[in-house]
Amino acid sequence: YYKQDLPKKEPKFILVNNKIDLESNIDKNLIDHIKKAESDRLVNYFEISCLTGEGLDILKDWLVKNLFGGS
User: Fold this and answer.
1) φ/ψ of residue 7, rounded to 5
2) What digits encode the pLDDT tens for the residues 6-28?
3) Whole-prediction pTM value?
4) Closest Cα partner for 34 from 21, 19, 16?
């Protein structure tokens, strides 16, 4: 196949907001804007803290189930 023969489909993605434990976290309006603007490609949104571990199990379980077909 040549590059021009490949489908020009935009890839889907997940959005992960890290450092939710910090007071100066990313602006919620920006997150809402991204979620709205990319709603056709955004598969899921996660809020996590690598420092405290909050949300990591949910993210990990989702990744295993949806990317690797695990349970």
Assistant:
1) -60, 140
2) 667 778 999 999 999 998 767 88
3) 0.78
4) 16
